């Protein structure tokens, strides 16, 4: 079962590589779409979280986390391109020599840039829609953005590792399930785990920061603070997705293949 899942990761990475080589514009549209979807889910998360935050409820983060998994469901089923997931896909395909390090680097750079552009676009859309117009200084959005912007480098790095370990598992494990309802339930639960634990997702943080800056200028977070967050979180996300899921499950799949070959030889 693991072998089948890893084979699917490899084939998907090859399709992504071909898309970049044959239609870079479509790839960028898909990458932008990922952060647009994240932004839509973020609004729901912040609205729910702030209702409980305003009354100082201990259920604040629980409610904010409850439906954030919808973002990944929209991304996966909507055919969007997410940087954090691609750290897993291209690690697998590159280890298996279906793609090269150049393909991996190209994909990660284009996806990251596309996701960043999407974060700016969704922040502008939400600003002109007035979704967070005249929110108070103590709004849940500003609380989270400030907390993320002032984290220590080492803490952010390891929170980034833990985050994308879970996010990539949320992409990979449902591949072994046939029913869509069960797939969606697993995605929701695993993403709930990362959110409620307070881990750091580089692309989600792009959206948090972009929306915050669109609403408040640089009063809540500065560009330097944004960069100081995104650098360690991005590095951590790469390690979490590539090492703890991509490399690990490629290793497991290789072991399964060896066992299968050995069994075939014995039966012959």
In short:
The protein is mainly alpha-helical.
Explain this structure:
There is one protein chain. This protein has 268 residues and is an all-alpha fold. The chain has one domain (2-267): Glycerol uptake facilitator protein (Up-down Bundle), CATH 1.20.1080. It contains eleven helices and no strands. Helix 2 crosses helix 6 (101-129) and helix 5 packs antiparallel against helix 6 (101-129). It is globular, with a radius of gyration of 19 Å. The two termini are 23 Å apart. The model has no long low-confidence stretch (mean pLDDT 95).
Fold topology:
Layout: H1 2-22, H2 24-53, H3 60-66, H4 70-77, H5 83-95, H6 101-129, H7 140-149, H8 153-172, H9 180-196, H10 202-216, H11 223-267
Helix pairs in contact: 1-2, 1-5, 1-11, 2-3, 2-4, 2-6, 2-10, 3-9, 5-6, 5-11, 6-10, 7-10, 8-9, 8-11, 10-11
Largest sheet: none
Shape: globular
Name given to the CATH homologous superfamily = Glycerol uptake facilitator protein
CATH fold label: Glycerol uptake facilitator protein
Structurally, the number of domains stands at 1
> Level of helix content?
over 70%
Instruction: List SSEs in N-to-C order.
Output: HHHHHHHHHHH
**pLDDT under 50 segments (min length 5)?**
none
Q: What is the CATH top level name?
A: Mainly Alpha
The mean pLDDT is 95
First CA to last CA: what distance?
23 Å
Separate helix tally: 11
How many DSSP-defined strands?
A: 0
User: How does CATH name the architecture?
Assistant: Up-down Bundle
The percentage of residues in β strands lies in under 5%
Class per helix and strand makeup: mainly alpha
Query: What would you report as the Rg, rounded to the nearest angstrom?
Result: 19 Å
